[in-house]
Amino acid sequence: MAEFSQNRSKRRDGEVLGGAVDFLLANARLVLGVGGAAVLGIATLAVKRLIDRATSPRDEDDTKEDSWQDLSLLKATPRLQSRPPPAALSQLVPPPAPSLSAPEGPAHAGPQTSPQLSLPAPPLCLTFQEKLLAFERDHVTMPGARVSLAKQLAGDIALELQAYLRNKFPDLPFRALVPGGPLYEGLQAGAADPVRLLVPLALEPGLWSLVAGSDTVAQDPRCWAVRRTQLEFHPRGSSPWDRFLVGGYLSSRVLLDLLRKALTASVNWPAIGSLLGCLIRPRVASDELLLEVQHECLELTVAVLLAVAGAQDGDLLLAWPLEGLAGNLWLQDWYPAEAARLRALDEQDAGTRRRLLLLLCTVCRSHPVLWRLGRDHLAQVVLHLGEQEADWAEEALGEHFLQALELLLGSLERASLPSHFNRGVNLLDGLREEEIDDLGFALYRGLQTPEGLL
Question: Is the pTM of this model over 0.90?
Answer without folding.
Answer: no
